[in-house]
Write the structure tokens for this entry.
Amino acid sequence: MKSVDVRTRTAADVRAVDPHDFFDRELPDAFAAGLALAAPGARELAPPPLAIEIDGRRWTLSFDGNRFAVTPDRGAAATFIRLDADALADIVNDLITPMTLFTGGELDMPVGRLEDVLDWWVVLRSVLDHRPVHTRGAVAFHDEAGTPLDLDRVFGPDDDPGTLAHFLAEAGYLHIAGVFDASEMAAVSAEMDAVAGTYTRDDGRSWWAHTSDGTDRLVRMQYFHEASPRIAALLADDRLQRWAHLTGDGHRLGKPGANSNLAEALIKPIGIVDGISDVPWHKDCSLGSHSYRCCSLTVGISVTGAGTDSGQLRVVAGSHRALVQPAFVRRGLDLPVVDVPTSAGDITIHLSCTLHMSQPPVTRERRVVYTDFSLDDAGADPGEARIARVREQAYKTVSQQAAPS
């Protein structure tokens, strides 16, 4: 079996970071030692100088195509951000990313573009984690015999597990058709309707959105397994549980961080104008902790099925194997974008560091239930609590905008 466990840190690796020592000594040394890993990809990214200010002192990161430099001033930086010492330590320790600060409304960037900040984050992760920055053509897709993969392939529940595991490790996702019956999915959908009235805004276990016709819609029911006997039974069913053993890495049911929110039921309405429903391109580790928790498996149970006009999943094949921006698809990225249309009863599986999104539905709503298989000791992830707080804060901010007046 092909492993997808790429963790390199545990909670014991979290360390104190002194900003002056980091910028004056540690980072220049890391730039010099990691030049061969970071420079080829940085030449493609061509990041403009980035100035970082912490407690009134500024440093500028720059790249001239051949070497990286850290200078103790703002200089002529096109992008300028302010951090506090704790945020710098969290970024260095891979507990958060710039997307954490941006999503939580905490990114202080008086000048510049988020894309440039993310490019420099990629470079930093390269020299701190000893990973190459992605370059065009670096990721290819082959089966066990060396034949190019059909990235649109749909598997069946009885297909060879080794073939599925290899495809997952190469492409970062799977589409498995007919895992459950359409009648079972109709029953799950009915339970979604039956328990929807038990969820309210600000209950701490649901997300809401506002549609163009003025309706306030429930779009996510957390802890759905506690309200749905059918989903609780399906989570324990071998038809689902068997996929936890696909890679042999010791995945088990549950979200990273020993979170008891085992299942979330999503309704994707047409015409969302405010609120979080159809999430744009992101990795599930985009808010941090990649090196502590990846790769967990995110499993989508297609309650209604989905296509191009009804909220289907889309993925960037191979993005889990590439050190790229943790959110959005950067201009010029050479990795293929793949549509994953499903029927009721299909499941999808994507790795936590595969870029993915769901298309906004335009002709009919989509219903899906998501669960996770996490690596065996994911509860040791030291960043999960903060990530959960940032997600909740981002939801509350957008939810308040979506609330009807």
Remarks:
- The mean pLDDT is 92.
- The two ends are 54 Å apart (CA to CA).
- The CA atoms of residues 284 and 352 lie 5 Å apart.
